[in-house]
# Entry
Amino acid sequence: MYKNYINNKWMLILIPLVGISISLIYFLAKIAPSEHQAYFYILHSIIFTAGLWVGCLLIVTYLWRKYPWEHHPIKHLIIEVVAILVYTNLFAVGIFGLEKSLHLFNERDLLHENMVMGAFITNLITFFITTLHEAVFFYKQWKYNFSKSARLEKDNIEAKYETLKSQINPHFLFNSLNSLTTLVDDNNEAVDYIQNLSEFLRYVLKSRDRELVLVRDEVHMLQKYLSLQKSRFRNNLKIKMSVPEEYYHYSLPPLVLQMLVENCIKHNVISKDKPLTIDVFAEKESIIIKNNLQKKLDVSSTGQGLNNITERFAFFTNREVKITDSSGFFEVHVPLLTVEL
# Structure
């Protein structure tokens, strides 16, 4: 949406033409003292209008990147209005000051008066059309976000359903109970397993209706989940986890880390001869889940799970979920969110 805004070629042509046309119409309504001055005025109008529009375009482009409407509407509006007003006036003063210093006209020159009035009108028209375009784009952005929100809400409901199916399905509980039966001879380990399973299921039920959770809670939940999987796969599954507490205040959609780890386990061979290593760590406002590739031949992947995760993040941030598959490793980089809970 934003790229379409920047690439609106009709805006790059329309506003300069409007400014030039108004200036020329105003000029033609007067009597040009000479043909030389007429050409000078036309050149002045072109340079003046083009300079105004290029400057306004740069201001608007910068503000859309620095303070997007959807995140900073009031700040964006105030800074944009002030910046455009200041720029257009300073630019006009600078142009006329330069022309005066070059003695291109004198104070009483009728051409000078016409140029000042034409510049004033051009300033007003440029500001008006820029503001109008911003208003139209804001309305389109609002409609886009509204429809996107509705679509993602539907996807979120489906994702919750799929999450519950995948995390609390009979297959998972069956594996958990099978692992539990092998631990009855070791009471301490059995107690730990039951406690971890209970806390994990409680977290799933607690977070299923939330859009975001703290990284702290996701990390603690993931530790419980990994502990369950370690009980199942023993030394065939190797876990490296390093997410410092300084990242705990960030946010994530619930169960994202667990789903990514489960994806590693689901699609890769885990055996004594081919142990699976999963590395979970934080880096540059992202959490990375990395594993060595040893794909199962009998398990096909549609990529739907990763697509769902990407869509969930798209609702909260412009930063993308990065997926790399090379050099014998599979990595997923999920951006950490700064949304307050």
The CA atoms of residues 82 and 162 lie 49 Å apart. The first strand starts at residue 213 and ends at 214.
